[in-house]
Write a structure and sequence with these properties.
The protein is an alpha/beta fold. It has helices spanning 8-25, 45-55, 75-84, 97-110, 156-169, 175-182, and strands spanning 33-38, 42-43, 63-68, 88-92, 123-126, 128-132, 150-151. It is globular. Bound molecules: zinc ion. Zinc ion (ZN) is lined by residues 192, 194-195, 197, 204, 206-207.
């Protein structure tokens, strides 16, 4: 875990600690209602997040509301739908380090195009909605006994890259820490105010504004 060998118990504590830090920084622990997505595209996510909040103790346990979610397009379309699903409130994103690494490789291989750079921040706001990613510093492989998350976005190109990243991470944990820092490669100057995507020729492909 992060290049260290930990037993299941310590690994679970480390995952919880990282998530707690993000949620606490984002002010999520003092929020009464938290929204989370429930979808076959990322199986296990809502169970995982429920368990993580429970591990943080009753005192800190906000009410969790599940938003049923579906998307049938590319990973960019999925991100667009997620980021525009609710216009207000605190919404948890199913973002893990392996997902970010795969999305970075996917976006580089695609060349220019819409790119959601703000998902590389642990928390950010779009209008009245606040997005928080408690698992942003953890990979799916580090979850051990806390739970499981399986991404199957239905975007063949992304899913292939994602599976490759997972297999590489088994032997190369440094890769995990590369993605969030490589993000400086993308200097996004203009972003869509509605969904946060980078603008291409001054336009957002998905919001049509
Ligand atoms: Zn947009």
């Amino acid at each position: 875990m992060g290049g260290r060998d930990l037993c299941v118990l310590c690994a679970n504590n480390e995952v919880t600690k990282r998530a707690y830090r993000v949620l606490s920084e984002a002010g999520a622990l003092h929020t009464e209602a938290i929204y989370t997505f429930s979808s076959p595209l990322f199986q296990g996510w809502n169970n995982l997040i429920g368990r993580l909040l429970a591990r943080m103790g009753k005192k800190n346990e906000p009410k969790l509301y599940e938003l049923p979610f579906e998307s049938h397009g590319s990973v960019d379309e999925m991100l667009h739908l997620m980021l525009t699903y609710r216009k207000e409130g605190l919404i948890l994103l199913p973002i893990t380090t392996d997902f970010l690494t795969a999305y970075l490789i996917y976006s580089i291989s695609k060349g220019h195009g819409p790119f959601y750079s703000n998902i590389y921040s642990p928390h950010f706001t779009l209008g009245l909605a606040k997005f928080v990613s408690p698992m942003i510093r953890t990979s799916a492989l580090e979850l051990a006994g806390v739970g499981e998350i399986r991404f199957n976005i239905g975007d063949d190109e992304f899913d292939t890259i994602y599976m490759w990243v997972l297999s590489e991470l088994n032997d190369n944990s440094e890769l995990l820490f590369t993605a969030p820092t490589s993000i400086t490669l993308f200097s996004v100057k203009e972003r869509c105010l509605n969904c946060g995507s980078s603008l291409v020729n001054g336009r957002c492909k998905f919001c049509e504004i």
